[in-house]
Amino acid sequence: MLNTLTITQAHIKLKAKEISSVELTQACIDQIENVDDKLNAVVHRNFDRALEQAKKIDSEGKFEHTLTGIPYLAKDIYCEEGVPTTACSNILRDKDYIPPFNSTVTRKLNEVGAISIGKANCDQFAQGTSNETSCYGHVHNPWDLERVPGGTSGGSAAAAIADECIFASGTDTGGSIRQPASLCGCIGLKPSYGRVSRYGVMAMTSSLDTMGILSKTVEDAAIFLQTVAGKDTLDATTSDRKVPDYSKCLDGDVKGMKFGIPKEYFIDDLDNEVAESVKEAAKTLEKLGAEIKEVSLPHTKYGVAAYYIICPSEVSSNMARYDGIRYGHTENAKDLIEYYFNVRSAGFGDEVKRRIMIGTYALSAGYYDAYYRQAMKVRTLVRQDFTKAFEDIDALLTPASPIPAFKIGEKIDDPIQMYLADMFTVPASLAGICGLSVPCGMTKNNLPIGLQILGPQWGEETIFKAGHAYEKAVYPDGIAKPELK
Amino acid sequence: MSLTPDEVRHIAKLARLNLSDKEVEKFAPQLSAIIDYIGQLSEVDTKNIEPTAQVTGLTNSFREDKVTEQLTNPDALLETSPLTKVEHQIETPSAHG
User: Fold this and answer.
1) Cα–Cα distance between A371 and A313 in angstroms, integer?
2) Fewer CB within 10 Å: C terminus or N terminus of chain A?
């Protein structure tokens, strides 16, 4: 069962020549072929090319980088040269958009010899909360096939916990890594905005999009970030701050660290079992020598409203490039304007259309000040809440999602209920800070619960340190895995 | 606040989307509910608060205006278009009807 290995475990075995990259890659492929009929987590399979690459890496026999020879799945919005990249939308699926270039993250992973075995299902253009907006159909939560895996990186989360890969890349704009990680019981890292290049990843909300990972350990998330972080001339919003050596903070020592529990996250909408598990996790960190105190983030309740102005506004602009000219779906039309209408109407799904329309409305003359400008001011207030909190504490402990995985179809016709599933992840996105979701127990119905650890901007070392210490204390033999029947 | 079917049609037109009557019927209450929900921001006191458009702290990231790396080639980019290519250009439906 080589596919169940973590990055670190697999690397040790590869380096010692106990296993080959071909064997490791084949094990992941076998798992996809065995279980993905049930999960629908993988939408493009790149197996032949992956095995060829693994063979080449084996013949070179050098496993100098921790990710060399490690098979992974990429969320279907990371452009990868020669591999279909469709954002799980009919507007690109029609002719299977095959990018002639790599995203920076893809390039960096390629350079160290990580092996892309395929593309993971996601919400269409990373817009959704439950992975129900994909044109390839729902992803099923590996813990309960009738439930959603969360979204938008739902395929990545399901695939990681179901051992269809050693790790999976994801993106997090309002919670799209942390929330599915929580609902599927894996680790999810959302780096600070600007830490990892967005180049070549289909833009959703350009001022919020971040590139991260769904993994089986916190250490693996740190290895991924170490590899892909840093200044990129192709993304002017990347920071030139030095990327620290993240392995140094994985010492399991949280003595003297100060954690804040924001009272605004423990509200009526929060599921009781989730609340109890998160409080229990705080106690565990306390026993390990950390200090826990209550803090306040007063503008938390406005996060979702601000997000659902800023996000659709940027979406309405970003989705304009899908016009059937340079790529994607095509339709018959008598003239160009009709062509735009026909292509976009046939190609986009409902959630994308909703966001385009809300954004169009919010940005239209007469409404700009009331909606978009006000949302950007509230964004300032949300950000100030965090800045103030981090004056006294190292990191925040909150639930990643207010509820465990819900039933497929349960919220699909009620956008507001769907949006509220993001209520604990969105504020950190608006502030541009970093966050980690780490499993912290199961409900009585055997559904995973996620602890969200939020750190300040560029504070990845802090959340890795805390997350790693917690994980090692609670799951010394590895996180819990679902039994796929 | 509730959007009328005509308002929904108007927004869709601005966004270059055709909506069937059935879609208008479905989207009108959904969009109205979303606009009601986001409208709660009006209760936040934002006097003297500067808007945040981005959080990196970076300003004016300049570079020399010259080609530094060839990420792909023009023909490969043209290849992804679903339309006919004529002399290295994409032939679109007429802009004048």
Assistant:
1) 10
2) C
Determine the Cα–Cα distance for residues A69 and A14; give it in Å rounded to an integer.
8
Question: Is the minimum CB–CB distance between B86 and chain A shorter than 8 Å?
Answer: no
Give the residue carrying structure tokens 């750190």. A455
Asked if B82's CB is within 8 angstroms of A94's CB, the reply is yes
**Residue A404 has what DSSP assignment?**
S
Query: CA–CA separation, A150 vs A131, rounded Å?
Result: 6
Distances (CA, A) of A218 to A151, A254, A450: 20, 15, 13
pLDDT confidence bin for A91, thresholds 50/70/90 = very high
- Verdict on whether the full-model pTM lies above 0.95: yes
Asked whether residue A317 is domain-assigned, the answer is no
Segment A322-363, tens digit of pLDDT: 999 999 999 999 999 999 999 999 999 999 999 999 999 999
Q: Testing the interface with A: which of B34, B48, B67, B83 to mutate, by most A Cβ within 10 A? A: B34
pLDDT single digits (tens) B69-91: 778 888 999 999 999 999 999 99
Residue A366, domain member (yes or no):
no
Mean pLDDT over the full length of chain A: 97
The answer to the question of residue A455 being in a domain is yes
Give the single-character DSSP code of A369: I
| Neighbour count for residue B83 (Cβ, 10 Å) | 16
CA distance A429 to chain B (A): 10
Residue A344: the pLDDT is 97
pLDDT at residue B3, as a whole number: 93
Q: Which residues of chain B have pLDDT under 50?
A: none
Any long-range contacts for B49-54 (C-beta under 8 Å, 24+ apart)? B49/A377, B49/A380, B49/A381, B50/A377, B50/A380, B51/A373, B51/A376, B51/A377, B51/A379, B51/A380, B52/A376, B52/A377, B52/A379, B52/A380, B52/A383, B52/A430, B53/A207, B53/A376, B54/A207, B54/A237
| CA nearest to A471, candidates A297, A218, A147 | A218
Q: What is the DSSP letter of A446?
A: S
- Measure Cα distances from A428 to A181, A398, A449 in Å: 16, 11, 19
Both tokens of residue B7?
């308002």
> In this structure, is residue A322 part of a structural domain?
no
Buried b / exposed e along A305-319 (16+ C-beta atoms within 10 A): bbbbbbbbbbbbbbb
- Structure-token pair, residue B10: 């108007």
For chain B, give every domain's residue range: 5-43
CA distance A457 to chain B (A): 9
CATH topology of domain B5-43: Histone, subunit A (1.10.20)
Contact B31 A419 (CB under 8 A): no
Is residue A405 within 8 A of residue A149, CB to CB? The reply is: yes
Helices and strands counted in chain A (H then E): 16, 11
Structural domain total, chain A: 1
Token reading at B39: 């409208």
Q: Give ipTM to 2 decimals.
A: 0.96
Q: What is the DSSP letter of A370?
A: I
A159 has pLDDT over 80: yes
CATH code: domain of residue A78: 3.90.1300.10
